[in-house]
Design a protein that fits this description.
The complex is a heterodimer of chains A (about 550) and B (about 170). Chain A has about 550 residues and is α/β, with parallel strands linked by helices. Chain A folds into 3 domains: about 210 residues, Rossmann fold (3-Layer(aba) Sandwich), CATH 3.40.50; about 90 residues, Roll (Ubiquitin-like (UB roll)); about 90 residues, de novo design (two linked rop proteins) (Up-down Bundle). Chain A contains 22 helices and 11 strands. Chain A has a 5-stranded mixed β-sheet, covered by helices on one side. Chain B has about 170 residues and is an alpha+beta fold. Chain B has 2 domains: about 60 residues, Arc Repressor Mutant, subunit A (Orthogonal Bundle); about 80 residues, Glutaredoxin. Classes of the chains: A alpha/beta (about 550), B alpha+beta (about 170). Chains A and B meet through helix 8, strand 3, strand 7, strand 11 and helix 14 of A and helix 2, helix 4 and helix 5 of B.
Chain lengths: ~550, ~170
């Protein structure tokens, strides 16, 4: 088998490969001129449909088909959102970063072609803030393209105009969901919308909108440079026995990370197996160890065991071994000395942190699964917890139909996969750390770490006590040190009696007081005049004559 | 007829407002400027105080609650007090955690004597945990202002973080 020649990553390693001159010398923007001069938008859509390109953002929806959902003859404006945030926020994924930093013009050409096909007049690239370098590279490329007449009014002398703007996100995984991204672009909190209406009908600013991924854009550019036949010659053809399988064509960027010798982003034809990827490109599992589990496409896609490593990583392959799908093709290798409980805990922490809080099953499910996993790690787990986690995993998400978006599915899948495929290890861990096996009646440990801002801190922020800032970390449970009082036994006995207690008017007490008794039941006695010299101990002595 | 009071801006400078207004032609709706405006204010003040929220709302023609609603959703913005001149995000997601991300976070915090989310006394450095920074090929990694620090250990990170670094964006 001859080694695959990188196409999407061809600029990597070329000095100044991100510049316009370098991109043109590699044949870039020539297909754009041809398309704008000779083709109609419908032709472009037909070409992309014929190529079988499926969205690289995670769901694998056919891109050309998505574009046909836009209403015909819409007066406009139509928007194109390019998502460089959320799928990219999937832990383990960084292919878009490589594309934006090393070949931004390839992405831009794909954007112009896609906008031409969808007749979009404005494209927004939603970029995560963690990529300052990508921001500079992309902004530089956009400026170059405007100066060269490749963006802006009447591109290359045609009637087509397009503006491309960068929009910076602010650390929220949910902005990767397409309607969440749209809400965020509109300046709101990124709560995914209930569909329908789908974004193609009513999306950004209530206009028809297409949301695509950066890598999809790069693939569009390559399809028009190298042709549909080239694209279809790579990858896995559709399964004739399954009419719903559109096939997996084209090259794909695989992000290899975790316990491998050479982590990195590798381009390979769709359908490469995880073992080929890890051993061939990644140099094998690090330190000569064996793999225990492999995440096929970002943490939300679940886990594969070592015996499932020969699964082809195409759009259908991971689903056959119980994973959610290919996802973003972020392959994370976990070696055999890692506790799978820790891995699942890390995943649960991520999703509990990133759940947007709109749908109750996800908001509560993610945070409670994290609390249960923290309890297991704290040595107070019980075997029934595993079934509890499985039940939670089966009830939250879009597939059981209890949430708006798929974040909860992504949270549930690693939970279900890990417990089903590594149940023995979970049980061993629980038996080892909690040998009694008894139900521990302690409350589940609180989710908040001491150093994370608590609800009380947020409350204080609102109630104006802002000078004090967040509360100091509380090192022990119980009363705060500042409020400490001596235990009452050390005080003089009468001092205890003199404490201001609310006087509860009860009938017998009132009656006793009427009969000259005080509320302790003792005989009322005349108070001595305070001499002003004795310790308070002396003042409690009975007077000599009493 | 009582004239409405002329809003006096105390926190937002004219320069910030000009930068926000420069972005206005990009969007058909001024509410979409919320996130860019918050970024602009945060870049200068290193936090977005409540007064700034009110003034951003006045500039954009929104209710302060709408801006506050957006602000509190995103973890990036802080309201209580400014973060340090260098803001460090230490990745703790799966790829980095497998290669020692959690140890990096606790180790580097201990070196500077602060808790995660804390700022050093001189106001130079804030260290925060972050979910995936998208640099898993360089795990464990951290982001100090605009610089990605790759394959860090607590020792190398501490050596890197004492260097001065500017914020370009």
């Amino acid at each position: 088998m001859q080694p695959f020649q990188p196409v999407l990553l061809e600029a990597v390693g070329i000095p100044d490969g991100h510049g316009l001159a370098s991109y043109r010398s590699r044949g870039g923007y020539a297909p754009l001129e041809h398309v704008l001069r000779d083709k109609k938008p419908a032709d472009v859509i037909e070409t992309v449909k014929a190529s079988g390109l499926r969205g690289r953002g995670g769901a694998g929806f056919p891109t050309g088909l998505k574009w046909t959902f836009l209403p015909k003859d819409h007066p406009g404006p139509i928007y194109l959102c390019v998502n460089a945030d959320a799928d990219e926020r999937e832990p383990g994924t960084f292919n878009n970063r490589i594309l934006m930093e090393d070949d931004p013009h390839q992405v831009l050409e794909g954007i112009v072609l896609s906008a031409f096909a969808t007749r979009a007049s404005t494209a927004y690239i939603y970029l995560r803030y963690e990529y300052p370098r990508s921001w500079h590279r992309l902004q530089g490329a956009i400026d170059e393209a405007y100066a060269a007449g490749l963006l802006g009014r009447r591109i290359l002398g045609s009637d087509f105009s397009l503006d491309v703007h960068l929009h910076r996100g602010a650390a929220a995984y949910i902005c990767g969901e397409e309607t969440g991204l749209i809400e965020s672009l509109e300046g709101k909190r990124a709560w995914p919308r209930i569909k329908p209406p789908f974004p193609a009908i009513e999306g950004l600013f209530r206009k028809p909108t297409v949301v695509n991924n950066i890598e999809t854009m790069a693939c569009v550019a390559q399809i028009f440079r190298r042709g549909v036949e080239w694209f279809r010659s790579i990858g896995v053809p559709a399964d004739p026995a399954n009419p719903r399988d559109p096939g997996s064509y084209g090259p794909k960027l695989y992000c290899l990370s975790g316990h491998v010798e050479r982590p990195g982003c590798y381009e390979a034809p769709l359908g490469i197996t995880a073992r080929q990827l890890i051993d061939g490109h990644g140099g094998g599992v690090w330190k000569g160890r064996k793999a225990k589990a492999v995440i096929p496409g970002g943490i939300s896609m679940g886990l594969m065991t070592e015996s499932e490593l020969d699964t082809p990583l195409d759009f259908a392959g991971p689903g056959r071994v119980g994973c959610l799908g290919l996802g973003t093709a972020a392959v994370v290798v976990i070696d055999d000395q890692t506790s799978i409980v820790d891995v699942l805990h890390n995943s649960a922490r991520f999703f509990a942190h990133e759940s947007c809080g709109q749908c109750t099953p996800c908001r509560e499910g993610t945070s409670w699964s994290l609390r249960i996993l923290e309890r297991i790690r704290a040595g107070k787990g019980r075997l029934a917890d595993l079934d509890l986690l499985l039940e939670m995993g089966n009830t939250m998400g879009m597939m059981p139909g209890s949430t708006i978006c798929g974040l909860a599915d992504g949270a549930a899948w690693p939970m279900k996969n890990a417990i089903k495929k590594f149940r023995g290890e979970f049980e061993d861990s629980i038996r080892r750390t909690n040998p009694s096996g008894w139900m521990v009646t302690d409350p589940v440990p609180a989710l908040q770490r001491s150093w994370e801002p608590t609800d009380a801190d947020r409350h204080r922020r609102w109630t104006g006590d802002r000078d004090r800032g967040p509360r100091a970390p509380q090192l022990h449970r119980g009363r705060a040190p500042g409020r400490h009082r001596d235990p009452p036994l050390l005080l003089a006995p009468r001092a205890v009696g003199r404490r201001q207690l609310p006087d509860v008017p009860r009938r017998d007490r009132l009656a006793r007081r009427r009969h000259g008794q005080d509320h302790d039941g003792a005989q009322a006695r005349p108070r001595l005049p305070d001499a002003g010299q004795g310790r308070h101990r002396d003042r409690h002595r009975q007077p000599a004559g009493a | 007829m009582i004239a409405p009071p002329v809003p006096q801006r105390k926190v937002l400078t004219d320069d910030m407002v000009a930068r926000i207004e420069a972005l206005a032609p990009r969007y058909p709706d001024r509410r979409a400027l919320t996130l860019p405006a918050l970024h602009i204010v945060n870049a200068d003040l290193r936090h977005v105080p409540l007064e700034a929220v009110v003034e951003i709302a006045a500039v954009l023609g929104l209710a302060p609650a709408e801006v506050q609603d957006t602000l509190t959703f995103y973890q990036f913005f802080h309201q209580d007090k400014p973060h340090g001149k260098v803001r460090v995000f230490v990745c703790r997601s799966i790829s980095c955690a497998l290669r020692g991300g959690d140890e990096l976070l606790t180790g580097v915090c201990r070196k500077f004597g602060i808790e995660p989310y804390g700022t050093t006394v001189d106001g130079e450095l804030t260290i925060e945990p972050a979910e995936c920074l998208g640099a898993c090929d360089f795990a464990p990694c951290m982001l100090a202002n605009d610089d990605l620090l790759r394959n860090m250990t607590p020792e190398t990170a501490a050596a890197e973080l004492v260097k001065p670094r500017a914020r370009a964006t």
